[in-house]
Amino acid sequence: MAETITDVDGRVLETEKLDLLGELDLIEIAGAVASGNARWMAIATLCACVRKIDGVPLPFPQDRKSLRLVISKVGPAGMVALIKAFQVDIPDVDAGAAEMEIAKN
Predict the structure, then answer these.
(1) CB under 8 Å to 26, separation ≥6 — which residues?
(2) Distance between CA atoms of 34 and 53, rounded to whole angstroms?
(3) Which of 43, 26, 55, 41 shows the shortest CA–CA distance to 98?
(4) Which of 48, 76, 86, 87 has minimal CB crowding within 10 Å?
(5) Neighbour count for residue 91 (Cβ, 10 Å)
(6) In what order do the strands lie in the sheet with 56-57?
(7) Per residue in 71-83, pLDDT tens?
(8) What is the spatial distance between Cα 61 and Cα 43, in angstroms, rounded to a whole number?
(9) Is the pLDDT of residue 102 over 60?
(10) What is the DSSP letter of 88?
């Protein structure tokens, strides 16, 4: 089921949780080493859930290069919004501190 999230920059992110095949595709993109890294996979999974930003489609990543593009488009403000919306605990990422850092800039 799709969910709409607004980040602190006012961007609207339309998200959809990954199904099992999407999760497997993401693990394949990650590769053996990165798929075992909880922080890497949490960030990649959250960003791969974003289907549109401000109504502009964001296709599911097909490889590491396109995954990096998705992550860069989501950006820090989008990541904070995703963490809060999905209530995810990412190792070494404090959403509150990240939000304060975004607000300072």
Answers:
(1) 18, 41, 44, 45, 48, 61, 67
(2) 26
(3) 43
(4) 87
(5) 9
(6) 2-6, 12-16, 50-53, 56-57
(7) 999 999 999 999 8
(8) 13
(9) no
(10) -
User: CA 92 to CA 58: how far, in whole Å?
Assistant: 27
> pTM of this prediction?
0.79
Integer Cα distance of 77 and 47 in angstroms: 12
DSSP track, 28-80: HHHHHHHTT-HHHHHHHHHHHTEEEETTEE-PPP-SHHHHHHHHHHHHHHHHH
**Tokens 């909880």 belong to which residue?**
38
Tell me the per-residue pLDDT of 8-32, one tens digit each, with 9 for 90 and over: 999 999 999 899 999 999 999 998 8
Is 37 or 54 the better-scoring residue by pLDDT?
54
